[in-house]
Amino acid sequence: WDALSSFSFGHIAKHIGRIYCLMFAALIDYALIITMLLWVPRENQLWVLFILAGLWGVADGCWQTQIAAAYGTLFTENESAFSNFHLWESLGFVIAYVYTPRIRIRYAHIILLCVLTLSMICYAIIEIR
């Protein structure tokens, strides 16, 4: 779903704009995180995990393409911005992999909600300016 989403959002953003694509991805992520916070898994609900993973892939495909497009627009003369983006993205992965096993998953989801909210606020500020 990630690859199909990346391809699709690349074309959709041309028609509706990057901000709406990212808002859609954020809504998917909010719904998924809240679902994971509230859902109590049962043995016969394995299919739900596949739906959650597929939707996560849809949102991730949007994030990957639209953030790269935003960097291309914001930093037209500075190719090192892409390296900087990937550096911080990788650092974020490392931080999450370090703290997640040491805390309850509920708290990891709450942290994820907070980071998503902060990210969307910062992106809105960039779009307004």
Automatic annotation (TrEMBL):
Per UniProt, subcellular location reads as: Membrane
Gene3D superfamilies assigned: MFS general substrate transporter like domains
Q: How does it sit in the membrane?
A: Multi-pass membrane protein
- Respond yes or no to whether keyword Transmembrane is given for this record: yes
Which terms in the GO cellular component ontology are assigned? membrane
Q: Where are the transmembrane segments?
A: 20-40, 46-69, 105-126
Q: Has the keyword Protein transport been applied to this entry?
A: no
Against PANTHER family, the record matches this protein to:
PROTEIN UNC-93 HOMOLOG A (PTHR19444:SF13), UNC-93 RELATED (PTHR19444)
This protein is called UNC93-like protein
Q: Which organism is it from?
A: Adineta steineri
Task: Give the source lineage, highest ranks first.
Answer: Eukaryota, Metazoa, Spiralia, Gnathifera, Rotifera
